[in-house]
Amino acid sequence: MSEPTFKQRARYWFDNTMSKGTKALIGWLTVITLALTAIGALFLVFTPEGDGVGGSLWTSFIHILDAGTITGDVGGAASMIIMFITTIGGLVILSSLVGVLTTGLDAKLEDLRKGRSLVVEKDHTVILGWSDQVFIVISELVEANESEKRACIAILADRDKVEMEDEIRSKIADLKSTHVVCRTGDPADPDSIALVNPSQAKSVIILTSAEDDPDAQLVRSLLAVTQGSTGLNCHVVGAVVEGRNLPAARLAGGRAAHVVDANDLMARLMVQTCRQSGLSVVYTDLLDFGGDEIYMVEEPGLFGRPLSQALHSYRTSSFMGVLTKEGRCIINPPSSASLQPGDKLILIAADDSAIQLDGSRPIIDENVIVARADAGNRAERTLILGWNAMSRMILEQLDQYVAPGSITDVVSDHPDAPEAIRKIGPTMRVQGLNFKEDDTTDRLLLESLNPGSYNHIIALCSDDVAPQLADSKTLVTLLHLRDMAQRSNTRFKVVSEMADDRNRTLAQVTQADDFIVSDKLISLLLTQTAENPHLSQVFSQLFSPDGSEIYLKPADHYVRPGVPVNFYTVAESARRRGETAIGYRVVAQAKQAPSFGVHLNPDKAQQIMLQPGDKIVVLAED
């Protein structure tokens, strides 16, 4: 190939110069302006109207910048022609400059719209990804940051920046003191993640992706955050959908990550809640930032003293357990154990400012304390209507709770259910398992099942159809059950799952005992863990069949019903049973939203009157 010609080299150099954008175009227009000014002045200086080099340059320059200057020109034909040509050249230059500036400004605005600038914040919360969970997480963080003068949430998602901001404004009317910043980028790309400045954030929340394989996206994001960010000092939280991917996700996240198994967690909650009406209200209150929350407080004044004293040392806070100086979380510890230096008390309180030691001596009425033993576990019958990815785990969890001789019947038309039941059946150690393939929205079918004969009923959303359709079918099932209960004047213990939180309000008209909304509770758990990573240990113990869990037990097992009593007395009665009381439920208020009769962390000095059927919310081993 022959050597490039001078023309080709010049063209190549010019193309490279022009490719540099608006700045290069303005530079070329400046050069052309100066050249045209010099040429006009050169010709003008040789005319009779020429005023020397300096004056001619100024005259030529003025004609280029202001086309109206030519109307005031006087002189010979030569100078008029020169200035006319110069003015025409100036018009071309100015119109080109306006076009270049307009194009450059549009490009800059488009660049800003893409959200590619660095988030210059510190101690902010980073959210990676976009789903319906984002609105729940933001709402909870707004509540958590209400006491701060200026808090920031930085969101990185593969969506348009302006669209994200508009959608947030439409779903969350009042952000209070929290500032939300959106950036467009791949939440699994280290370069894009760097835009939200995770190295100076206080926490990173990775949302569950809407992709076909959300766990793969989670692992990529964990690797991008923990391996791609230098100097990462914050903790990272996320949830896997499939339990088999949990080890890989935790390996990818390293020690900085707190990853939970969403389906396993929801299965545990479903089983615990179906066996205890009102339990989901307790968990929701603990998980959100709107009511009472869990705090960890170091109290030097109680070091060396028995934990029974800590139990009664707070009037408006409820004792749950201890976080040892080694980082071990103990829920419902023995009241005779002493608090060691470096240990922290795990307390339930409306706010950290409400945690105050009460120096007064608690008033305990010994006359109303009773000591009735709990009835032993009896064989139970459970009906599961529907099938999804959690069903297997629900059956496995039930097998750990129910007494020998218990029976669980499953009814579903899900295509995966028959084969799954065939495999699960032989693994059940305690309960018997029966399956019927049919449509759970069929009224005749539901009547043939005699739902009043079951101790517990669980209505699940199917995952083989769209979420809205799944919720619609669940609502139909619940309405049938409600009508059947009213006609037979009986009360069914029904726990249902709603795939979409927006359908929770609709589901309340069915008067089911509890409603579990998967995405919402997982989002609440991730948000709480993002604010305090030690809470992952607390909830891990509460949701496990081993150790102490939350139970709602008959109030008349603790104090005499129909007698005024304060909660100090209730807590003392529970302590003597090796339990920790954290609230109570009034059965007469069980249908009144939003608390459904649950009073968590009550004022211990306030007088209450518990009636037969009311419950005490306790932390106990069984």
Automatic annotation (TrEMBL):
Topological relation to the membrane, as annotated: Multi-pass membrane protein
Localization, UniProt: Endomembrane system
Domain (CASTOR/POLLUX/SYM8 ion channel conserved): residue spans on this chain: 264-358
Transmembrane segments: 25-46, 81-105
UniProtKB keywords: Ion channel, Ion transport, Membrane, Transmembrane, Transmembrane helix, Transport
The keyword Membrane is assigned to this record: yes
PANTHER family recorded: ION CHANNEL POLLUX-RELATED (PTHR31563)
Protein name as annotated: Potassium transporter TrkA
Organism annotation: Glycomyces rhizosphaerae
